[in-house]
Amino acid sequence: TLSQQAASGEMGRTTIIAIEFDGGVVLGSDSRVSAGASVVNRVMNKLSPLHEKIYCALSGSAADAQTIAEIVNYQLDVHSIEIGEDPQVRSAATLVRNISYKYKEEMSAHLIVAGWDRRNGGQVYATLKGLLTHQPFAVGGSGSSYVYGFVDAEYHRGMSREESQQFVINTLSLAMNRDGSSGGVAYIVTIDEHGTEEQVILGNQLPTFFDQ
Amino acid sequence: MEKLCTDPRTRGVSTGTTILAAIFDGGVVIGSDSRASIGGEYVSSKTINKVIQVHDRIFCCMAGSLADAQAVIKAAKFHLSFHSVQMESPPLVIAAASVLKDLCYKNKEELQAGFLTAGWDKKNGPQVYVVSLGGMLISQQVTIGGSGSTFIYGYVDAKYKPNMTKEECLQFATNALALAMGRDNVSGGVAHLVVITEKGVEHVVVPGDKLPRFHDE
User: Fold this and answer.
1) Looking at A6-15, A22-31, A183-192, B19-28, which range is the least confident one?
2) ipTM of this model?
3) Is residue A150 within 8 angstroms of chain B, CB to CB?
4) For residue B150, which residues of chain A lie inside 8 Å, CB to CB?
5) Which residue in A3, A62, A66, A64 sits closest to A37, CA to CA?
6) Mind telling me how many Å the CA of B191 is from chain A's nearest CA?
7) What are the φ/ψ torsions at residue B76 (nearest 5 degrees)?
8) Is residue A47 one of the residues assigned to a domain?
9) Which of chain B's termini has less CB crowding within 10 Å, N or C?
10) Residue A95: in which H helix or E strand, if any?
């Protein structure tokens, strides 16, 4: 119910994005967790590691999303020991999708899974409501509606690592400016064959636009 | 700006829509899509014109309930032409916007219509005004409205620059409408654009197959 949602931490009111570039992926999120009209956490990192080179972006009910991420993190650890090497991104996405689909009535969480593996390079998977699709980029959360036009116009294949990071930062900044439920700082994670890099862009370092 | 009506029986035809207006160096561009739908399920018109001329150099875009918007515009046209006869000069753009605002505010209980007003007058040059659902009137350099507008807030914020040339502004407006029509299922059809400057008024219609395409189309 609405009052139950208001009482609990609600991360569905958020902006998350993941994009593929030539050689890896970049994930990004805002940092606001709101319960109704109150911001209960203004520095929450919604990018959660599932494995060394596989991350997921959380949205929806904070509790549900975090639980799914923790369970899949455990399952991937076991799986990677069984196969004797690093897991594929598709495997991680499938594990997330299996939980989302089985508990779709009880849970409300949308995780975007992105990472790099040796077999297929950088990949982004959306797992909304139990479907599994591989996409060049994915956006989610309430703030995503405002930036569909921007990402449709600006995304193109073959972007470099720096271009992709800037694209994610611009998109998050635009969404955070328009969506009352997104805000705070921007968290970015860049994953490629060489490793995983986490960054924080503080509020005053975010790009500004013509009316600011 | 507009709440999308989901019950077709009580609300009738509504313009799930995308409208925008933007000021450039020397004039203003105002435009819209051309789809009218009933309850978001049936497209009742593929080529409706939502850009209405209320005076020589003043145009309006309507959003919300089509019936309400047409009724308000009809009354506004009358008030405005009477006003310009009394003043013995063409009306100011803000006068047109104020007339719409008065009608929307005084009848806010019964109406569900919002407007963008754009035009050129001698006193203040190019201007854009927004009259929202309850009757608020504000002036902006660029503004968007309708159900499809949510998807292009990011694009407009990023790509609009003050003092663009006419060609840049037309391209910006066409791109923005095309992007919104691509994501909003109740916006579509052709893009109607009107360019208003001191010299006059120019209509541009971009049919569906000539709209800009983006990376996944």
Assistant:
1) A6-15
2) 0.80
3) yes
4) 145-146
5) A3
6) 16
7) -65, -40
8) yes
9) C
10) helix A89-102
What is the rounded average pLDDT for all residues in chain B?
Answer: 89
The string of pLDDT tens digits covering residues B24-81 is 999 999 999 998 887 778 888 888 888 999 999 999 998 888 889 999 999 999 999 9
Please tell me the pTM assigned to this model: 0.85
Does the pLDDT of residue B11 top 70, yes or no? no
> Within a domain: residue A172?
yes
Average per-residue pLDDT for chain A: 91
**Cα gap A26→A162, rounded to integer Å:** 10
Counting the structural domains of chain A, the total is: 1
CATH topology of domain B21-38+45-204: Glutamine Phosphoribosylpyrophosphate, subunit 1, domain 1 (3.60.20)
Instruction: Give the domain extent around A101.
Output: 43-143+156-201
Q: For residue A202, how many other CB atoms are within 10 A of its CB? A: 9
Shortest distance between the Cα of B154 and any Cα of chain A, in A, equals 5
> Would you state the structure tokens that stand for residue A125, as one six-digit string?
């998977």
Range with lowest mean pLDDT among A11-15, A97-101, B51-55, B126-130:
A11-15
Amino acid letter for position B182 = G
Say if B153 is an interface residue toward chain A (CB within 8 Å): yes
Contacting residues of A for B161, CB less than 8 Å apart: 210
Q: Which residues of B touch A154 (CB under 8 A)?
A: 158
pLDDT band at B14 (very low <50, low <70, confident <90, very high): low
Residue type, B5: C
Minimum-distance CB partner of A152 among B141, B159, B182 = B182
Nearest to A210 among B161, B176, B215 (CB): B161
B194 vs B80: CA distance, rounded Å: 20
- Per-domain residue ranges of chain B: 21-38+45-204
- A149: nearest CB among B161, B183, B215: B183
**Which token pair is A37?**
């009209």
Domain of residue A167, CATH code = 3.60.20.10
Q: Identify which has the larger pLDDT, A46 or B63.
A: A46
